[in-house]
Amino acid sequence: MKVIKKILIGIAVLVALILIVALFVKKDFGTVKEVTINKPNEEVFNYIKYLKNQDNFSVWAKLDPGMKKEYKGTDGTEGFVSAWEGNSDVGKGEQKIVKITNGQRIDFELHFIKPMESTSPAYMTTEAVSANQTKVKWGMSGKMNYPFNIMGLFMNMDEMIGKDFQTGLNNLKTVMEK
């Protein structure tokens, strides 16, 4: 009986310690990646504003070629929604265009449903470097609520998400420069 009591006290102390540490771990995360594409800004922007084109460069679209997709609204316009449901690598969710600043920026709302529900803002920007070169940035931010923010000590969200964004941007460069 004493052994069980000591084990239970040890577990309680460990849980309390984890919860205390989580109070001091940051809750916000974010990543921004970029690439320069050898095409005019207008051409690049007019390609990336269509969410359906993400199937041609996004890492996640390639993780489950058989994923179910559903679209609502007019692609390339504010309010358009691209929804997906796929295998465990891509989960279930939807992406909505919330704002377009023509030739410069597209703001999205990412609503993940599975494997874990969350909503995060994301964006893509274009900027003319020269007449035939465009810098594209892809960024996302989010928040992990307490006590789940403790996972931030073990996972680098910038590496995890940023790696996929950079690969997607490199794929976009390849597609655009063909």
Walk me through what this model shows.
The chain has 178 residues and is an alpha+beta fold. 30% of the residues lie in helices and 36% in strands. The chain is built from four helices and seven strands. It has a seven-stranded antiparallel β-sheet. Strand 5 and strand 6 (118-130) form a beta hairpin. The relative contact order is 0.21. The model has no long low-confidence stretch (mean pLDDT 90).
Pick out its properties.
seven-stranded antiparallel beta sheet; alpha+beta; 178 residues
Structural class: alpha+beta
Distance N terminus to C terminus?
A: 72 Å
Strand numbers in spatial order across the main sheet: 1-7-6-5-4-3-2
Mean pLDDT: 90
Q: How would the global form be characterised? A: elongated
Main sheet properties: 7 strands, antiparallel
Total count of helical runs of at least 4 residues: 4
What percentage of amino acids are in beta strands?
35-45%
